[in-house]
C-alpha cells in the first residue's frame, strides 16, 4: 500500500483509504475515523501560520510568518511548521525528548513551550529530506465532501449539545463555582 500526504507533509494516509479506484476522493463516511478527522482538519489548517514563526513573531524576533508546509501531531492539537522550521520540529522530536509526546494531544503544547523557551536545533542540524512525486496529480477535494453528512438517529441515541459551548448542558453540575481558587502547576 502506498502512503500519501495531502495538503501538508507529515500526516500520511493510505492511498486506498482516501482515494477510490478512479482516483477521486472517497466519501468521508467510507474513511476510518482517524483518516476522516485528519482530512476534515486540512482546510482549517491551510490558513494558519507556522507555529515557530508565530511564536517568534509574538516575541518580537520576526517580522513575517511563513505558511506551513508540514503538519504533525493529533487532530485539534497539531504542530504546523514551514520549510524553514521543519528541522526545528524534527530536532525537538527526535533529539530533545519530543517523542515522549508521540500520539498525545500534549505534543503541541510541549513543542510550543520548548520553542517559546528559546530552544532551537543546532546550526549543523539539517532535518529531513523529502521526496515529492507528482504532487500536481492529486485531485482537489470537493468542498461538499469536507462536511459531515446528516444522519438520522433515533431520539434516544442523539446527544444534546450546546453548540456555543460544545458541552452537554445536562452534564454540567449546577453547583459549579467559577470563583473557586484551584491549584496551578506552580503550586
Automatic annotation (TrEMBL):
Pfam families: DUF8114 (PF26419). InterPro entries: DUF8114. It comes from the Archaea. Residues 165-187 have a biased composition (Acidic residues). Residues 117-133 have a biased composition (Basic and acidic residues). Residues 117-187 are annotated as: Disordered. This is Uncharacterized protein. The lineage of its organism: Archaea, Methanobacteriati, Methanobacteriota, Stenosarchaea group, Halobacteria.
Amino acid at each position: 500500500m502506498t502512503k500519501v500526504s495531502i495538503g501538508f507533509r507529515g500526516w500520511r494516509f493510505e492511498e486506498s483509504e482516501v482515494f477510490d479506484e478512479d482516483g477521486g476522493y472517497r466519501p468521508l463516511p467510507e474513511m476510518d475515523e482517524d483518516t476522516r478527522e485528519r482530512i476534515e482538519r486540512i482546510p482549517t489548517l491551510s490558513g494558519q501560520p507556522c507555529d515557530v514563526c508565530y511564536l517568534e513573531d509574538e516575541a518580537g524576533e520576526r517580522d513575517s510568518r511563513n505558511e506551513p508546509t508540514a503538519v504533525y501531531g493529533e487532530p485539534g492539537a497539531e504542530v504546523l511548521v514551514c520549510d524553514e522550521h521543519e528541522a526545528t520540529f524534527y530536532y525537538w522530536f527526535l533529539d530533545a525528548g519530543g517523542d515522549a509526546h508521540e500520539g498525545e494531544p500534549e505534543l503541541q503544547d510541549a513543542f510550543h513551550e520548548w520553542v517559546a523557551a528559546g530552544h532551537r536545533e543546532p546550526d549543523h542540524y539539517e532535518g529531513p529530506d523529502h521526496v515529492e512525486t507528482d504532487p500536481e496529480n492529486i485531485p482537489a477535494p470537493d468542498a461538499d465532501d469536507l462536511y459531515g453528512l446528516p444522519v438520522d438517529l433515533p431520539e434516544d441515541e442523539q446527544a444534546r449539545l450546546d453548540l456555543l459551548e460544545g458541552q452537554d448542558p445536562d452534564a454540567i453540575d449546577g453547583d459549579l463555582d467559577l470563583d473557586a481558587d484551584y491549584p496551578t502547576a506552580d503550586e
